[in-house]
Amino acid sequence: MNLPLAARAAAFHALHAENLLLLANAWDAGSARLAQAAGARAIATSSAAVAWAHGWPDGDALPAELLLHTVHGIAGAVDVPVSADIEGGYSDDPARVGELVGRVLEAGAVGINIEDGADDPALLCAKIAAARAEAQARGVGLYINARTDVWLRGLASPERRAEEAVRRGGLYREAGASGLFVPGITSEADIAAVVKGVSMPVNVMARPALPELERLRALGVRRYSAGSSIGETVNALALAMMRDFLATGRVQTYGVPALSYPELNALMKR
After folding, report:
1. Residue 1 pLDDT > 70, yes or no?
2. What is the DSSP letter of 2?
3. How far is 34 from 48, CA to CA, in rounded Å?
4. Is the Cα dihedral 126, 190, 150, 99 positive or negative?
5. In terms of CB atoms within 10 Å, which of 2, 28, 193, 195 comes out highest?
6. Which structural domain range is residue 160 located in?
7. How many folded domains does the chain comprise?
8. CATH number of the domain bearing residue 15
């Protein structure tokens, strides 16, 4: 994307106000090119899929330099805004998180995902504040998508999950967050409560039990992420094909039509 960083950030913010933004999370420049070819209006990374692509497990284990290299490659390969999942910021020191965010901006991303995990929400608030300060110092309206793991980690009883997500969302918004990411949420009642309770865009993650897209739009959801699901399936297919080839010498695609060499090569042309 040839626009200045600040303009790219503004364009990314605008996508959250227009309709439901769908993000088919990518993990490298090639998968980002595929997402763009499929019609993606923005690219967001999956921290898990990025880690797996580099031979690391998910969970703040990926060296930051590999993350930055990936973000730089993606930003240079596509013509749409890019958001980087930085997990927990790769540090419990807000100042270091702020420094990392500065380097993420230098790599070309205009949004981040940053999560609370099992930590006290106050820690994520401090990280968000540091990220916002760093971005403001650079004149960029960074989109900070604050992820709360209330559902994924069972941080509240089922009856209180929506209330706790709203509470955390308020804290994160005050700290400088732009949106709230609530992976694991699926019920319409909970989604409606969270959307109503937080005054910023709400992001949900693909799950079989989620309502259909039109219903999510009606409920007021503004962002819908594939998460690691596409990366999981791509890796599962690759592993199955490799096992079969090593056992039989045959290349099986398990019913998935293969892109031809010319087709795939054309998708990567810049």
Report:
1. no
2. -
3. 18
4. negative
5. 195
6. 5-227
7. 1
8. 3.20.20.60
Q: Which single residue is written with the structure tokens 């913010």? A: 13
pTM beyond 0.85: the answer is yes
* Residue type, position 118, single letter: A
Q: Tell whether 259 is covered by a domain.
A: no
- C-alpha 129/C-alpha 112 separation (Å) is 13
pLDDT tens digits, 76-117: 999 999 999 999 999 999 999 999 999 999 999 999 999 999
Residue 251 belongs to a domain: no
Asked whether residue 211 is assigned to any structural domain, the reply reads yes
- State the DSSP string of 228-252: THHHHHHHHHHHHHHHHHHHHS---
Residue type, 101: V
**Tens digit of each residue's pLDDT (9 = 90 or more) over 14-60:** 999 989 999 999 999 999 999 999 999 999 999 999 999 999 999 99
Question: What are the tokens at 169?
Answer: 């969302």
To which H or E segment does residue 82 belong?
Answer: strand 82-85
Query: Would residue 256 count as lying in a domain?
Result: no
